[in-house]
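Both lines are given unchanged directly below:

***
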Amino acid sequence: MKDLNVYAGTEDGAPMVVTVLEGKTLDPKPPVKIAIVGTIKSVNEFLKKRYRDQADSPESVNNGVVLQKVDPKSAVITVDEDAMTILLELDPEHPYGTTVKGVLEFTKYLDQFHINQPTTHKREELVKILRFSKPLFKDPEKYEDLLKAYQTFDFKAAIDAQVSSDLRANKSAAYSKRISTNLPEDFILRLPIFKGFEPEEFRVEICYDTTDASIKFWFESVELAQLIDKLKIEIFTEQLLPFQDFVIIHK
């Protein structure tokens, strides 16, 4: 390969050198597909910045392909409330079209309780959850009483079984359970339900069931279920409201 130097004059008379290189050029690189995943606010924040400033800012171009131009005529927003997602596709027909996905997620503070889920806990597991959740309880004094009650709880249960049968060999069993306990049955939590949003208050019930030798606990909350439904509607409406001129598909 041989270099070719070309000398040219400038307005001030100083020489300017342009070097021309001969040889093999670098292989062209394909565009990079931008796929962003964040909180449920991600699509709103992306569009507010890109769509608002687009007229005053240069487009993002890679090898002649426009990657982040926001055009409501080609962009599509897909909403899936069951999966709690909002997906923005700036150019669904282009394989390198930018996508932004917002996901509505529960906070770790709520997840640790497994409320309204088919998850049960032994007494020791229940006490551990309560011990590490003190800042989430609305009433500190009631929290101390609740924790102490379950720490000192002595499980006593008796099961009487009576089995009867008829001449056709059909059998039925009746069980009665007697539990000696004065355990608190509910408490009030104050915590953020969804990531990125303010705390909410709701009542939680401590439920339990027994076998012949053990007891298991779980958490239920009608108020939490109602809050989740209400907040989901409010959050999705708020996030999509500024962009009604876009194509919005609801799954």
Q: What stands out?
A: The two ends are 59 Å apart (CA to CA). Residues 108-163+177-220 form one domain. The mean pLDDT is 81. Helices lie at 42-53, 108-111, 123-131, 140-151, 222-240.
